[in-house]
Amino acid sequence: MDKTVATLIGVVGVVIGLHASRAMHQTNITGKIFSARDSIWVYAVNGSDSLKTMVMNNGKFRFTVKPGSWKVTVKKNQLSDSAGTLVEVVEGSTLDMGTIILN
């Protein structure tokens, strides 16, 4: 019985350690949008992977992404056309795109 409890505690400890290590190495893209409009959409695309978020009143956005090249596009509405910016994100880092000002 004692060996079983010790083994269980050991396995739980290893699993917690692996999850904590993975969480510390998250890769993110962040930024802030300054615009007179309320509904701004931000898209991040890497091959077949795509993410989108609507920017709220504080103007901040954050994506948790895989490392690599991402095309980040900011749109005033979902139908507007925009070229976007290609960014390179390194594993375990946060790429801050700074403040993006829209007219």
Features:
single chain, 103 residues, alpha+beta, Immunoglobulin-like, four-stranded antiparallel beta sheet, three-stranded mixed beta sheet, 1 helix, 7 strands, elongated, Carboxypeptidase regulatory-like domain-containing protein
In summary, what is this structure?
The chain is α+β, with helices and mostly antiparallel strands and 103 residues long. Helix content is 22%, strand content 48%.
Sketch the topology as an H/E string, one letter per element.
HEEEEEEE
Overall spatial form: elongated
Assign the CATH superfamily.
Immunoglobulins
Number of strands: 7
Estimate nothing, just give the exact number of structural domains: 1
Instruction: Please name the CATH architecture.
Output: Sandwich
Helix fraction by DSSP (H/I, runs of at least 4):
10-25%
State the end-to-end CA separation: 69 Å
Indicate the proportion of strand residues. over 45%
Q: What does the main sheet amount to?
A: 4 strands, antiparallel
SS content category: alpha+beta
List low-confidence stretches. Answer: none
> Could you tell me the mean pLDDT?
83
Radius of gyration: 19 Å
Task: Explain the overall architecture.
The chain is an alpha+beta fold. The chain has one domain: Immunoglobulins (Immunoglobulin-like). It is built from 1 helix and 7 strands; from the N terminus they run H-E-E-E-E-E-E-E. The chain has one helix at about 1-25; strands at about 25-35, 40-45, 50-55, 60-65, 70-75, 85-90, 95-100. A 4-stranded antiparallel beta sheet has the order 3-2-5-6, with no helix packed on it. The protein is elongated, with a radius of gyration of 19 Å. It starts with a helix and ends with a strand. The mean pLDDT is about 85. This is Carboxypeptidase regulatory-like domain-containing protein. It comes from Niastella vici.
